[in-house]
Design a protein that fits this description.
single chain, 169 residues, mainly alpha, 0% strand, globular
């Protein structure tokens, strides 16, 4: 269980994406539940109940900056393929920011739409619709509007004045 705790607390939790803990919580024990499987599920529940680490201002600003940069790229793409490639980058970043900025667990890959719907069904639909229009119609307007909405409570888009300092070491 020490190794499992390490991966829960030291690997997954700092990312805000509890993939392993979710797999264990939702997993079905085969051939049947055991003392060990129940113990492991309790450990998974502990990390999930603790929630992700709180994002500080620097992390929020860093994510705002990168989202802003990608939004600028989809505002005026050079071609449809660049728009789609950039859309695939902004999709997970925006979903992650939406969750993490609120102190919620995030997701990656195919789990993003499911987690968005679980978090807020109406918002999840709006999010998915915006990106469906981006990918199907090559229309970035709704994804840009969505990014504005998500970033607004945290200061909006960020380019001017943003800097990333290297650690003193």
């Amino acid at each position: 269980t020490k190794t499992l705790k390490y991966f829960f607390w030291e690997v997954d939790r700092p990312t805000g994406i509890p993939s392993l803990a979710n797999m264990i919580r939702e997993g079905i024990e085969i051939p049947r539940p055991s003392k060990l499987s129940q113990k492991i599920k309790v450990i998974a529940d502990e990390v999930l109940d603790a929630g992700p680490p709180v994002m500080g201002k620097n992390e929020i600003d860093h994510k705002r900056y990168f989202i802003t940069d990608l939004v600028d790229d989809i505002r005026v793409p050079r071609n449809k393929y660049e728009l789609l490639a950039t859309g695939t980058q902004i999709f997970p970043l925006l979903a992650d920011f939406f969750h993490r900025a609120q102190g919620l667990w995030s997701a990656k890959g195919k789990a993003i739409p499911r987690v968005l719907e679980k978090t807020d069904a109406d918002f999840g639909k709006k999010f998915n619709d915006a990106f469906e229009r981006l990918f199907r119609e090559a229309n970035p307007r709704f994804a840009i509007k969505l990014a504005e909405e998500i970033l607004r409570p945290y200061g909006g888009f960020l380019f001017d004045g943003f800097k990333l300092d290297a650690p003193a070491r």
